[in-house]
Structure formats: C-alpha cells, structure tokens
Design brief:
Layout: H1 3-11, E1 15-22, H2 26-35, E2 42-46, H3 55-65, E3 71-74, H4 76-84, H5 88-94, E4 96-99, E5 101-106, E6 112-116, E7 126-130, H6 131-139, E8 148-152, E9 156-159, E10 168-172, E11 177-185, H7 192-196, E12 201-217, E13 224-229, E14 234-239, E15 245-252, H8 254-262, H9 265-275, E16 283-286, E17 290-299, E18 303-304, E19 307-309, E20 315-316, H10 324-344, H11 352-381, H12 385-400, H13 402-413
Parallel strand pairs: 1-2, 1-11, 2-8, 5-13, 11-19
Antiparallel strand pairs: 3-7, 4-7, 5-6, 9-10, 10-11, 12-15, 12-16, 12-17, 13-14, 14-15, 17-20, 18-19
Bound molecules: flavin-adenine dinucleotide.
Length: 426
Amino acid sequence: MSEQQSKRADKQQSQQADIIVVGAGMVGLTTALALAETGLDIHILEARDIDPQRIGVRLQAMQAQGYDPRVSALTCASQQILSNVGAWPQMAEARISPYTDMDVWDGEGTGHIHFCSRELHEPALGHIVENRVTVAALLQQLPQHDNLTLHCGVRVQELSPPRHDEQRDLALSDGRQFRARLVIAADGAQSRTRQLAGIAMLEWDYGHHAIVTTVTTELPHQATAWQCFTDDGPLALLPLDDPHKVSIVWSTSPGHAGSLQALDDDAFCQALADASQHKLGNILAADPRHCFPLRQRHAKDYVRAGFATLGDAAHTIHPLAGQGVNLGLLDAAALAQALSTAVAEGENWHSLRVLKRFERSRQLNNVQMSAAMEGFRRLFGTQQPALVLARNLGMSVMNQLGPVKNHIVQQAMGLSGDLPALARRG
Ligand SMILES: Cc1cc2nc3c(=O)[nH]c(=O)nc-3n(C[C@H](O)[C@H](O)[C@H](O)COP(=O)(O)OP(=O)(O)OC[C@H]3O[C@@H](n4cnc5c(N)ncnc54)[C@H](O)[C@@H]3O)c2cc1C
C-alpha cells in the first residue's frame, strides 16, 4: 500500500483495531485467545468461509464420516497452552489419542530405539489430534471474549509500511480497510501478509513429498507411535482412538511419492505393509491419500515496526519429529507473554522493543529445531555404509542409556527447556 493509498485510507472509513491477526488456523487462533485477557481490541481475519456458530455441529458430522487426514502429534507443552486458552477440554471431548510409547527403527533392521511414558512417570508421551478438532475447539472459545472478533471469507490484499505513528493500514478483499497498531501474520506457509511486509525467507526443498492418509491395520497399534527410517525417508504410523486405525505420514522422494499415489488401494496397502515391515500386520484399508511437498522455510526476521509473524508463516520444518505446530504454539505463547507483560507494566506494548523480546525468545530455538531436523534427515538419508553402521549402532546404544534417552524425550515433549509461561505446568 503506497503512502498515497494510506492517505486515502485516512479519509475513507477505516476501522481501528489494536491488533489484527491474519489467519484462523491453530496458531492464529491460539495467539488471539492467549491475548484476550489484555482487553485489547483484536480482529482475526480468515480466508476460509467458516460459520463459528455451526462449527460444533459440522465437526460432529465430519467425525461421523471418518478421520481428518491432517493430524498433529501435540506435545505436553502444546497441551498446556491449549488448556490455558480453554480449548483442551473440548478437544478431549471431541477426539484425541494419547500415545504412551514411541518405537523408532531403521529400515536396515540394525538400529532401534523405544521411548515409554512409564519411564518418565508420565501418563502419555503426547497426543495425536486431528487438526480440524483443534481448530474447532479454538473457534468455540472465541465468543467468550467480547474483545475478539472473527471476520471470515476475507483476505489481506494490501498492507502499508508503518505510518509515522507506527500503525499499519490493511486493505481487505471485500473492500474494507483496517488500521492497526500491530498486525500478526499467522496465515500459514505461503503467508501473503509476511510477503507484503517485505520479510525474506531462507528456504530450500527437502527433496521429499509426504503422503498422508488414515489406514486400518490388522494388529492393534498399542497406543504407540511407530516410525521407520526407510531408504527413501521416514514413515510414521500414528495411533488414533480406534486401536486398528493409524494416521500415516510417509515422507519419500517425489518420484516414489508419485508412484505410490498412482497405485490402487490394494497395492498401496501392500506397499505400506512392506515398508512398515508388517509391524502392524497387513494394512486392510486406506482412506484417500493426500500429498504435500516438504520445504524448509525460515523468516529472516519475525518482527518489524507494527508487525510480527509466527507459526508456519515464519517457519516450516520436516514433519519427521512432529514438531511444526508445536513450535508455532510456543511462538503464540511467547508473543502473548511479551505483549501481556508490556500491557500490564504500562509499556508501549506494540513498540519494536517489545516485539524484539518475542523474536529473541523464539528465533534461536526454532532455528535449532530446524537444524536438528535437517541433520536427522541427512543422517537417515545417507547410504554410506560406515555412516549407516555408526548411526544404527548409536541408536541402539542410546536405547540402553536411560537418562540420556529420557532427557531427549523430555525436550521433545516440551517438559524441559525455557518455556513461555502459558506452556508451563502449574
Ligand atoms: C504432512 C505433515 C505432517 C505434519 N505433522 C505434524 C505433527 O505431527 N506435529 C506438528 O507439530 N506439526 C505437524 N505438521 C506441521 C503443522 O501441520 C503446521 O505447523 C501447522 O498446521 C501450522 O499451523 P498455522 O496455524 O501456522 O498455519 P495453517 O494451519 O496453514 O493456518 C493458516 C490459516 O490462515 C488462513 N489464511 C491463509 N492465507 C490467508 C490470507 N491471505 N488472509 C486470511 N487468512 C489466510 C488459512 O485459511 C488458514 O486457516 C505437519 C505438516 C505436514 C505437512
């Protein structure tokens, strides 16, 4: 949006808001709810046509039809954040699947590691939750806060640079104009809002496509998340509430993904049973498959004057360790903490100084996780015999080292480390 257009917005009817959150996905909604107690006037813009009044009924109807092919393995820290914004009880009522164990092995058959919640004195390592269940539960919390307003079926088309008072003007696809002290981009991996703010991304292709679907297994999954590192990439079988249903994320080369997509259901089930080495017996049936190209992305900056970005809009990583949305929810909790503290202390809450506190608290952590995922992908992508042997032996040795293993899994569960207040247990 040019300066002239911004001046025109001055003259036209422009709606004033304290905060605009762009994107009502898991991260955008959590951010808005986590900020509700500040009393700031917050507007959420969502491109999809959602009817929040009917979301509960629609969810019930969808659940009766089957499982959402998009699921997330949510950590204990994410559970805590979602509980603190009021959504977890509704998610639990709708459909969540705790997993108590995780079994990871190498396709060669020489490396193996097993994690168990009992060893950590925890009821579960985490929960597998359909993304639509999380979004629906979050949407259902909005009416409890008078200062949160959801606008559906609208896209941000233009975003002005910061004005002299650091506010930003937004032009929406339905012709409306907003002026806000802070714009938060939570509009996903292809974030148009982040692009409009001129924030560059570091990105590269993982050389993997992920096939996701729900399948029926011959043997029960035993509340265990199964992950096999095949020659082509990691294959995860994530337990759902039915003991014979698992959600799969099969990351593999684009060529192999293409040939798997071309198979009929019977041949696909056979290929999946072979790739998972029949850990859950035969695969008896499969829902329609969806394919996602996987790219690593990281925003060079998370904040600018009057602007912040978080969740997939700021970073995407390989799903092999199921951390993507967990990082996004930690971003939401950290941003809410920085802004709420500033509001409570009478500081200029939308200043760049306050926003930088959020950036500092999250960027390094997210970069480290991205680097770890890249390291894993390369380590498990290698065909060099010496490296394969060292890797597989290392995995099996680690399996014997209880304290080291438990430390790693506690980090992955979000039970240790420097967590924002909303993610900490009481
Ligand atoms: C195959 C696969 C498996 C995964 N498994 C896991 C897992 O096990 N655990 C985990 O933690 N993560 C996982 N992830 C990552 C996780 O799915 C994402 O991190 C998460 O969905 C990001 O949420 P978000 O709210 O940031 O973005 P999104 O879910 O993309 O939401 C963005 C929202 O913004 C809206 N929007 C887009 N553009 C506009 C616009 N211009 N104006 C207004 N609204 C707009 C969209 O409609 C959407 O509602 C996985 C990812 C993949 C691809």
